[in-house]
UniProtKB/TrEMBL annotation:
GO terms for biological process: polyketide metabolic process. Pfam families: SnoaL. It comes from Gordonia polyisoprenivorans. It comes from the Bacteria. This is Ester cyclase. InterPro entries: Cyclase_SnoaL-like, NTF2-like_dom_sf.
Length: 142
């Protein structure tokens, strides 16, 4: 099996374990100890903070399912296009439960060193989540 297929398979397994089942420690074998996750706004998280954010997200959206739509690899770089769907059952970032089903999508651009991810850049639109929760409206004539 090619390195590319092995990496894609590992990514899918770990994402399923962490995002869909809440086993965030599955990331320990995929993310390096000095891992950095950089968001669209430039904020950075280490591995522990990233895992904590998944736990918090899953607490608010216990039915969360994250689907990897595409994985494209080029050398030590991997692009992952994904979408997540879940029902807002508990408070999230101070927003009381709305009981609404939401879907958000984004892309993660990872850099490997040897067999672990050392850095990711993640892009998604948090306004889409807020709009799906009914907190704001976007893209509509008012």
């Amino acid at each position: 099996m090619s390195t590319s297929a092995l990496r894609a398979g590992r990514i899918r397994e770990v994402w399923d374990a962490a995002w869909d089942r809440g086993d965030v420690d599955a990331f320990d074998d995929l993310l390096g100890p000095d891992y950095r996750r950089i968001g669209s706004s430039g904020d950075a998280q280490g591995r522990a903070a990233f895992k904590d954010s998944i736990v918090a997200t899953r607490a608010a959206f216990p039915s969360l399912v994250t689907t990897i739509d595409d994985i494209v690899e080029d050398g030590d770089r991997v692009a992952i296009r994904w979408h997540s769907t879940g029902v807002h059952q508990n408070s999230f970032l101070g927003v009381p439960a709305t009981r609404r089903e939401v879907t958000v999508s984004g892309a993660t651009f990872a850099r490997f060193a040897d067999d672990v991810i050392v850095e990711e850049h993640v892009t998604w639109d948090p306004r889409a989540l807020l709009a799906a929760l009914g907190i704001i409206s976007i893209g509509q004539d008012q």
